[in-house]
Design a protein that fits this description.
This protein is 46% helix and 15% strand. It is built from seven helices and seven strands. The chain has helices at 11-22, 35-49, 63-77, 100-128, 150-170, 194-201, 212-222, and strands at residues 2-5, 26-31, 53-57, 82-85, 131-136, 174-181, 234-237.
Amino acid sequence: MNVLVTGSSRGLGKAIIIEYAKNGYDVIINYNTSEKDALELKDYVESNYKIKALVIKCDISKEEEIDLMIEKVYKEFGYLDILVNNASIALDQDFTLKTKEDFMKTIEVNLVGTYLLSKKIGLKMLEAKSGTIINISSTNGIDTTYPESIDYDASKAGVISLTHNLANYFAPYIRVNTICPGWINTDMTKDLDEEFVNKELDKIILGRFAEPEEIASLVYFLGTDKASYINDSIIRIDGGLKR
């Protein structure tokens, strides 16, 4: 069994790679800029879990790079069991200062990249009549919106819509699901303003941000046979929000 996780050299993607590796999966680690982190992760999982890890550089906003990555994956493994569309960017800034270029860059990575990978790999999975696609959206795509994140929020809402269409198109051979995490303790959140963090913590019933491993365990479960009847589902994982 093998799994490709996009944007997996750090943060949540790294935790997902480790979760699959410790359960015996061969893993494909994708990065765009963090080569050192990706290679260190490869060494870690191969030495600790006796699995095979492949590292591939790919900017998922560029279709030609996606095609090259897919070619490398299938040349090396011959097939792919699970695709986890995790890679995304957030270019948060004051709503009045956000440009069209900012907006389009976020959409290209978070939504169009997810679409292209899901289409190209999904069609190969369809030929094999086997596979699972797991998309990483966000509660921002549902109802925890912020004007400074308007492009990010729109992209994550788009991923949810994309999931419904993919699940219908690829049925019954490929399951497609999306998880929507709330706040996670990663590099993306470590520099947030303390006052803002405290306000956000007050909204969460559990009173804390998630650890990446807590999200990764759900992603892993969705890729297993134990989740064989979970399809076209949008699963919220946010510690519970106060209403």
